[in-house]
Structure formats: C-alpha cells, structure tokens
Design brief:
It contains 18 helices and no strands. By secondary structure, it is mainly alpha-helical.
C-alpha cells in the first residue's frame, strides 16, 4: 500500500465516518430528548420501570434479528454478490437473493411477534419479583403494587411487540443501502423514530391511562416510519423489494449463507444482549426506580457510543468485507487499526470529562418534578460505572466487524458468551452489595473481558496482524489516557468553581453553564495537547476540514 493510497484510505474513512456521525449525532440527541421526555412524564416511578422493561423485550429481539444478526450476516453476503459484476446474470442472482432474504426476515419476525404476544404473560413474571413474605405487615400493599406493575408491563409489551417486525424490515433496507455505500438515509431514520415517540407522548398522554402507554404507541408508529422512509432510497438503487415463496427462500444459496452466519451470531449476540435482560430483572428485584435509573444512565453512554462507535463500525464493515474478498490484508489491517485509534481518541477523553461533570449533566438533562434529587443520585451512581466501560464497548463494536468481514462469526460469538457469563456472575454478586451501581459495574467489567478475548481470538485469524494491531492499540490508548488526565486536572477545579458560581441560577444556568464552560476548557486543552504532540489522526481531520 503506497503512502498516497494509505492517506486516501484514512481520509475516506474519516469522511464517511463524519457524515454518518453527523446523522447519528442528530438521532442520539433526539434519543436523549426522548429520555428527557420520559423522565419528565414518568421519572423513576413504577410506570417508568414498566416501560423500560416492556420496551427491552422487543428491543432485545430487534438487536438479535435486525441490527446485529441480519446486518452482520447480510452485508458481507450482499457484497459478494455485488463483487461478481453487474451483468444480467449476476444481477438476476442478486435480485433473487434480496427477494429471498426479505421474505426470510418478514416470515421469521412475524412468527416471533405472534408467539411473543401470546406468551407475554409467561415472560413478564421473570422481571417482577412477587412479594416473598406473606407475614409482612405491608404484604397486601406489596402484593397490590406487584400486580399493578406486572399487568402494566404485560400491556406495554403487547403494544410494542410488533415493533420487532417493522424495525427488522427497516434494518434490511439499511443493509441494502449500506452495502451500496449509502449511509445518510438510514442514519437519519432514528431521528424520525424518536421524534414520533416524543410527539406521541405529548399528544396521546391526555387520552391514555398513563404516559407510558402513549410512549408505547409512539414506538410502533416510529418503527413504521423508519421502514417507510428508507424504501424510496432502496428503490432508487434499482433493486426491487418483494416477496418470494418460502421454498425459494430457504433454497436460495445466498439465503442459506445468511442463515449459516445468522445462527451463531444470534447465539453470540443473545449472550451479549441477555445482559440487558439479566440487568433489568435484577434491577426490578433490587428496588423501585433502579431499572429506570440504569436506563437513563446507559442512554447517556449510548449517546456517545452511538455517535461514533456505531457510525465507524457501520462504515468499515462494507469496506473490510471488500478488502477481505480482495485479499488486500495490508489495507485491511491498516483500516482496522485506524478505526480503533479513532475510537480510542474519542472514548477516553469523553470518559474523563463525564466523570467530572456527570452530576450536572444528569441534572441538566433529566431533573424535573418527577425526576427529583433521589432520581439524580440513582442515575449518577450507575452512570459513573457505565461510562467506565465506554472504551471497551466501543472497541468491541469496531473489532467484531473484522471477524464478520471474513465470514467468521464463531469467534466473536464465543467472546460474547464468555462476556455474558461473566456479567451474570458479577451482576448477581455486585448487586447484593452495590445494587444498581453493581449492575452497571458488572457490565463494564464484562465488556473489558469481551475486548480481551477478541484480541486473543485474533491470533486464530491469519489475515490479522495481531501483534501490530495490539501494540498499536495499547500504545495509543496509554498516550490518550495520559493526555486526558492532564486535561482533566485543571478542568476538575474549574468545573467545581463554576458550579458554585452558578448555584443560584436555576436548572438551565445552574447546571448548564458549568457543563458547557468546563467542556470548552477541557476541549481546548485536549486539542492543544493533540496539536503539540502532532497526533496523526488530527492531521488527517484538519486536512479534510481545510478542503
């Protein structure tokens, strides 16, 4: 790989990543506003816990069938079809593959939705602990509260279960667009989704028994909009989306390959995503408000994670798949290390600043009559332990595509299973002593373990230069940690001074000004450090901005 080619590759990655990051930034901001709306209407009440639990169930299946499994299995296969050429025969084969995959996704998710709605009453008790002591003085009150919560979760779950079907169709459309290197439409659809949920909450709450049901209706409407919005862009690619027979679906060679990739991926991602299930179940059993506070906390973490990790991961998967198919392993390794460094450059400073300003950020975004000081305390505790694992979760989103691009889903699956087991054990133990904070810490430690095993398993991939990638990652990580600590020390004292200065300024000024001004100070110091140390990534970004 020549120097010019390498520079062009870096610029291309940065350009695509920045474009998608911009779209994702808007969606995450809207997602945050959605959580702010939820906090305003529900706080950390029983209804907040009920909505969190109910939305988690179809959302878990969404991640399995849609974003992770389908996308990971579909995009590499689709890229292979595209690489064959654009002659009539190859185009016909590709078209049949798309029809078969669309039918597969629709059929499987429809079946899961129907079964899920039927068995909802059997699922819900797993997340609601029935009062154990009938001799307790307030047993009757405990039992009533348990029945109300269980019934509400059941209703909300049944309302939102069809979300799985529409969002899986949306993910399939996204896979086609991303395979054609069209990222903007699918990057924008979450903005529409969150906007619909927010609008539904405000408009429908007066007409429903509680705001949680209004939000649930908004989830279904938002999912439909996500799918419908992308369809015209898919149509413009020239590919037709329609059904075919189940016989053709399951006999199509491409679909068979997708299924072969999906099955181990589902197992691995199920292990990873079941972390949410276990965490929510433990949180509901730990005390009221714990489940919702964990959700508010992780939403802040995902704001950053979604902007950068998901964006960069989405961008590099098609490119890594193309490089793998072409056997361009030098380019493959350089792109992988470049993406890892980008994530490190982002994650570590964000973590450092979040630890400094976490309380004010949470208060600024969420505090209201329903979200009081106790809600802030619960959320802050979880947030500090969640944000500690930001780097590892981000790296996992970057490293896994390196395996998927080569058609290897087994090794990331195994890493996910190990991480899941560790999280279960740690969450069970730590929740006893640390409650919600322990559950958050368990997830971060499990994410660290997942990262470690992904690097270990790289040794089995002859195409990846493990030593070069690992050493490059460790050295750059250490460098950014040192620079972040140096920037954080003066920022910490300035932040505390600002908090005292604006303590009487109300919510917006009292919390907003310390957050904004200290963030500016931290950013200025950090940028100066990177310029002084002549960071290679900054050079690439600055050149791109100048152009």
């Amino acid at each position: 790989m020549t120097d010019n080619t390498e520079k062009q590759s870096k610029k291309s990655l940065v350009k695509s990543g920045l474009l998608l990051s911009l779209m994702t930034f808007a969606s995450r901001i809207m997602g945050l506003i959605r959580e702010m709306t939820k906090a305003s209407f529900l706080g950390t009440s029983m209804h907040a816990d009920a909505f969190t639990t109910a939305f988690m169930i179809p959302n878990l299946l969404r991640r399995l069938f849609a974003e992770n499994a389908v996308s990971v299995a579909f995009i590499p296969t689709f890229k292979k079809y595209l690489a064959k050429g654009d002659d009539e025969e190859n185009r016909s084969e590709t078209q049949e593959f798309l029809k078969a995959t669309f039918t597969l996704v629709s059929f499987l998710t429809a079946c899961v939705v129907v079964v899920g709605i039927i068995i909802t009453p059997l699922i819900v008790p797993l997340f609601c602990k029935k009062p154990a002591d009938p001799n307790a003085a307030d047993y009757a009150m405990q039992l009533k509260a348990w029945l109300l919560k269980k019934d509400e979760i059941s209703i909300l779950t049944r309302i939102m279960f069809p979300y799985l079907f529409v969002i899986s169709i949306a993910a399939f459309f996204q896979g086609i667009l991303n395979g054609c290197k069209i990222f903007a439409p699918s990057g924008f659809t979450p903005v529409l989704f969150n906007g619909i949920v927010i609008l539904a909450t405000y408009l429908l709450s007066p007409f429903t028994s509680n705001p949680a049901r209004a939000m649930s209706i908004g989830v279904i409407a938002g999912g439909c909009i996500q799918a419908l919005f992308q369809w015209p862009f898919v149509h413009q690619t020239g590919w037709k989306i329609c059904f075919t027979s189940l016989k053709k679906t399951f006999s199509n060679p491409g679909t068979k390959q997708v299924i072969a990739l999906i099955l181990p991926t589902i197992v691995g991602m199920a292990a990873y995503q079941l972390n949410d299930v276990v965490s929510t179940a433990l949180a509901n059993r730990t005390g009221e408000g714990i489940a919702s506070s964990l959700q508010y906390s992780i939403r802040l973490q995902e704001l950053i994670l979604g902007i950068f990790a998901v964006s960069i991961g989405t961008v590099i998967l098609p490119d890594l798949s193309g490089l793998a198919n072409s056997k361009k392993w030098d380019d493959f390794n350089k792109m992988l290390l470049q993406a890892i460094k980008i994530m490190t450059l982002i994650s570590i400073p964000v973590t450092a600043y979040s630890l400094i300003s976490g309380k004010e950020i949470i208060s600024l975004l969420y505090k209201s009559k329903s979200f009081d000081d106790e809600s802030v305390r619960l959320t802050l505790g979880a947030f500090r332990f969640h944000i500690a694992g930001l780097l590892f979760i981000a790296l996992n989103r970057i490293i896994s595509p390196a395996f998927y691009a080569q058609g290897n889903t087994k090794l990331p699956t195994l890493a996910g299973i190990i991480s899941f087991g560790a999280n279960i054990i740690l969450a069970l133990i730590l929740s006893i002593f640390m409650k919600g904070n322990g559950i958050a810490l368990a997830l971060s430690l499990a994410s660290l373990l997942n990262t470690v095993f992904l690097f270990i398993f790289m040794k089995k991939m002859n195409s990846i230069e493990v030593g070069k990638v690992l050493i490059g990652t460790l050295l750059y990580t250490l460098r950014i940690i040192i620079l972040s600590v140096i920037a954080a020390i003066p920022t910490y004292f300035i932040h505390n001074l600002l908090v005292k200065m604006f303590s009487d300024g109300g919510r917006l000024l009292g919390f907003g000004m310390p957050v904004v001004l200290s963030a500016i100070v931290f950013a200025i110091i950090g940028v100066l450090e990177l310029i002084i140390t002549r960071d290679e990534l900054v050079k690439v970004i600055l050149k791109k901005v100048k152009r």
